[in-house]
Specification:
The structure is a homodimer of 483-residue chains. Chain A has 483 residues and is an alpha+beta fold. Chain A is built from 15 helices and 16 strands. Chains A and B meet through strand 1, helix 4, helix 5, strand 6 and strand 7 of A and strand 1, helix 4, strand 6, strand 7 and strand 8 of B. Chains A, B: Pfam families: tRNA-synt_2, tRNA_anti-codon.
Chain lengths: 483, 483
């Protein structure tokens, strides 16, 4: 049967030769007809660009031509010819067309007109057939591949850390429970509590919020590792920046200090974004126009100062600004919006956590470039971050991007057993559950560092999509688990 | 501080130059000392090979030398010199050694002696520091990278399908429930059932058993896609071949028929295994010896007919045998173990499902090569497999490997709406929950196919590890969710 002999439109656009006999398969985007000829725009998902099929009603039957409607899937046999029209250098003169699957124009929801992103979210099973979502998911793929290639080239090992976990050190209660117990009639202990001994794992388990702690274990053996897997938050946040299920990239490196960590994160971000720029030029050009059109509908003060492509190049071509939290507080305290009380949260004291409005001020107004903020107060950061000598701050870093805010969070890890023990005690973190984490500090501990990158935030930044639900195929949010 | 200036042992072994001044960091594997000199075998996880450090007690203090015990982490400054001993061409003459982390010899469990795999499983947070597990996880990384590279080179797009899902079409009840409800006091409806409207997703949800159905949706837009993500089975199987949490690779391709699917799967398996052979030569050589030693402890009839490396090359160098289920039943019916009633499940009738013993007979005894079994009875396969014209079989394929049994399962998918509807009705599959799956058959349907590969099975095959718990960092099995 050899269906596989079809040519992909991407390849045809790049290297199709006039005179070739070829087979194309794909979905009809549009058809324009007159008495003498039909022009079909065909897309097979390999490229944002359609390919033009010329169908002569003397060759292709009326029945077939009638079934060629938007959304239909067809197989085209024909010859590559020089195009008479503008917009393409070649086209295919069809010698035969077979209908693989019809799409009833009365029922197929993706007719060629503008659809709202909200509507397309409801038909996420079909939205990848649109220009916008085709582009988004091709770029998403390119970024994922660039991540693997970057780390592989550097000698990092990819580790799959567990999804189901019994440790909740970072979860802060916002985790999903995983169970095989009968929720209606759970088994109880003598004391009347749930008898988790009868659950699948013989203990209480939940979905991971981060692979970092297990990643550290691997780094203390293999030196440089990274994770790239799903993580979960049962947080009731209905925003454009939150998902209940999202993918995280978490490199962990033995023998890195805080500065090494910053160097790696900056280089990593620049390289993967550069990869997308080189490998997804057509898709990004489309998304750049799309973002500009969207921007034009906004009020002047909400418009981006740079276009999408401009923003991407800006990130890849400029060193990130590196300042401490303390320096940032000074800048913010003396900033116009703080003095004029324009911030929702005014900055007066050292020690407060920064809000999105402050991060965006630093990045978009003050420095006008990505910022690495370091050395936060220990009170607003996690127990595993390395304590600085000042007794007040930890060797944390957050990387802030224009339009996105925090895209990376990381730190040098506390490798000194005593310091770690003391901090865990202060924060009432159950040390018995974490015996394995503490043991890496007992046996051959080493300075090490790492960071976490929310993959969807990166895809948002690179594609310019405003809502995080539009950069993952089937988003999970409060009340939404369709598909 | 610039910790990052250290040289990796892998690079030093490949291209270290006599006379270079370098910094090394890693964990001490062993130390041999006499009055005049100490030899330290250092490993940093970048390679299975240790690097030899020569420490002169006239230069390195007694205190430091005393702390250099197995498992300790050290920083070595020194010069690359030609080695006097055998086993290495260069070594480092230490001018300074700093102890980064001690490892109390009384407490550190990984002393240099043989440890059982069972014991090492209990200290999974440390086992990656052994030769065997270092090798396994480097090979696992190489295979994962090879998967991404293979599909990227072919123009497939990586899709992240959902982990939390409300559809249970394939789950057959063996799924983990995901909830934020209070299990002790779940909210109830008027009718006394659990009120899932109050759960996080406002419905009953569970962990995915496969990304295939969602993968198909993406293939019907982007042509060729693959997934690589975690999947789950709440099956109470305490075997060497089952995990509750494991990673699956699931390519789905529009415009592929059954034969295209087989061609892709065979080529894919051969290419990723070849990649490991080229990129993990040292690790695989070690694992080959390890497997041979383990084999030698077995009874003659249980020993492998081929060594590990031999087996890998055999798979990459030979075409897979392709036979139908019907042909396989004939072979099995007339086989010696069937006639002599040696099979636990005797083969007498067409239609029975094949057991592991039958698959292994076909692969290891009859054909002595990987086998692609096709066209199974529809009764023993899933609803989504394409029905063959005979009315009895479906266009399924299983790929069977020596020692492992089924490593790939796939099929051409049923793209005809009527046939799919009819089969779902026969099997009582809730069609209203699957409206989105059915819509891809309504709107521009196309012949398509795909398969699933259990990644850990592949890692088992390539590393020769007998127990699947030894090829994933932190295995999840009944009663086990430690780390």
């Amino acid at each position: 049967m050899a269906f596989n002999k079809r040519v992909k439109i991407k390849h045809l656009l790049e290297s199709g030769k006039v005179g070739e006999q070829i087979i194309l398969m794909g979905w009809v985007r549009t058809k324009r007809s007159n008495k003498n000829v039909s022009f079909i725009a065909l897309n097979d998902g390999s490229s944002i660009n359609n390919y033009q099929i010329v169908a002569d009603p003397a060759i292709i039957s009326e029945d077939i031509l009638k079934s060629i409607t938007t959304g239909a899937c067809i197989k085209v046999t024909g010859e590559v010819v020089a195009s008479q029209g503008t917009g393409q250098s070649t086209e295919v003169q069809a010698s035969g067309i077979a209908i693989l699957g019809e799409a009833d124009p009365e029922k197929f929801p993706l007719q060629p007109k503008k659809h709202s992103l909200e509507f397309l979210r409801e038909i996420a099973h079909l939205r990848m057939r649109t220009n916008t979502f085709g582009a988004v998911f091709r770029v998403r793929h390119a970024l994922a591949f660039a991540v693997h290639q970057y780390f592989n080239d550097k000698g990092f090992f990819y580790i799959h850390t567990p999804i189901i976990t019994a440790s909740d050190a970072e979860g802060a209660g916002e985790t999903f429970k995983v169970t095989t117990l009968d929720i209606k009639n759970p088994p109880l202990t003598d004391k009347g509590t749930i008898d988790y001994k009868q659950d699948f794992f013989e203990r209480e388990t939940n979905l991971t919020v981060s692979g970092q702690l297990e990643g550290e274990l691997a780094a203390m053996a293999l030196s440089e590792i990274y994770t790239f897997g799903p993580t979960f938050r049962a947080e009731n946040s209905n925003t454009t920046r939150h998902l209940a299920e999202f993918w995280m990239i978490e490199p962990e490196m033995a023998f890195y200090d805080a500065e090494d960590n910053q160097d790696l994160a900056e280089d990593f971000l620049q390289k993967v974004i550069s990869y997308a720029l080189s490998n997804c030029a057509d898709d990004l050009e489309f998304l750049d126009k799309r973002a500009a059109e969207e921007d034009a509908t906004k009020k002047a003060e909400q418009r981006s100062e740079m276009g999408l492509l401009q923003r991407l190049k800006f990130v890849t071509e400029n060193r990130f600004e590196r300042i401490t939290y303390t320096q940032a507080i000074d800048i913010l305290k003396n900033s116009t919006p703080n003095k004029k009380k324009k911030f929702n949260y005014l900055i007066d004291n050292w020690g407060v956590d920064l809000q999105s409005e402050h991060e965006r001020y630093l990045v978009e107004k003050h420095f006008k470039k990505p910022v690495i903020l370091t050395d936060y107060p220990k009170e607003i950061k996690s127990f595993y971050m390395r304590q600085n000598d000042d007794g007040k701050t930890v060797a944390a870093m957050d990387i802030l991007f224009p339009g996105i805010g925090e895209i990376v969070g990381g730190s040098q890890r506390e490798e000194r057993l005593e310091n770690l023990n003391q901090r865990m005690d202060e924060l009432n973190i159950p040390k018995d559950e974490m015996w394995w984490y503490l043991e890496t500090r007992k046996f051959g501990t080493a300075p090490h560092a790492g960071f976490g990158l929310g993959f969807e935030r990166l895809v948002q930044f690179v594609t310019g999509m405003g809502n995080i639900r539009d950069v993952i195929a089937f988003p999970r949010t409060p009340g939404n688990a369709e598909f």
